[in-house]
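Hi there,

I know you've been waiting on this one. I reran it after we fixed the sequence typo, so this is the corrected version. Both the input and the resulting structure follow.
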Amino acid sequence: MANAETLTLAFVTGHPAEAARILERLNTVDAAALFERVPARAGAPVLNAMLPTIAARILTELQAGTAQSLLAVIGTQAAVSILRQIAEPQRSELVATLPTAAAMASRLLLHYPNDSVGAWIDPDIVVFPPGTTVSEALARISSGNEPQVELVFSVDHDQRLTGVTSLHNLLRAPGDRKLSSIASTPPVVLTGIATVNGVARRRGWQQTSVLPVTDRSGKPIGVLRRGALDRALARANRQLPTDNSELLVSMFASGYWNAFSALAHAIVSLLPGAKSITSDKS
């Protein structure tokens, strides 16, 4: 029979949202103990599914290496939603542990209010200067040093957005053509300072699920995905159930009661002095 630790890891990995609901009801120290003992790749989706205020309290209880690993796995946009809930100087200390590019992107997003587009963008974009050819752009994208993207940005000499094209179109274009010649003006360009409520009904969403975002000067800073916009709109309305029995009935009906029991036992067994589920923290 599988032990409690194995069952817990399987439950956390397979049902991160349900695990998040459970951990939100534990005290911070016990919840943090679980994150210290599971791999970051398993714990990160759970942390990301939690209320940011609770996730932030847990993050501040973790060892620096564990916190850094979790933030790196969940990605910049998700990490920033949690970091916003952490007071200085601890927030800056956590950001400083991230890889350089992620730290810079996090600082950028943290400057935006939580209800703004800039707070919810994906900053991992690929931008090309004037004169770049299709073959040069593809070589850079395929080098492995760039993020996986759907859109490719073209800018002018002042770094202002001039056009956008899809990776699909880029792959079909002749290699000697200039990127600027196949890039087109996007139907809608959002600004980072706009509110999420204000852009929710923009017509651009009828044509695409990803819209480019620029700063006030017109320089591209990322993209806003429809899924991120939906999360931004929903998060403000999300509330914890007021009655724990509501959660327990739901879990029992869904077949999660055994997993919950195992998780509760594992939390106790994972307190200081207990053996890790795995030594792989990444």
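Quick highlight: Residues 44 and 70 are 5 Å apart (CA to CA).

Best,
R. S.
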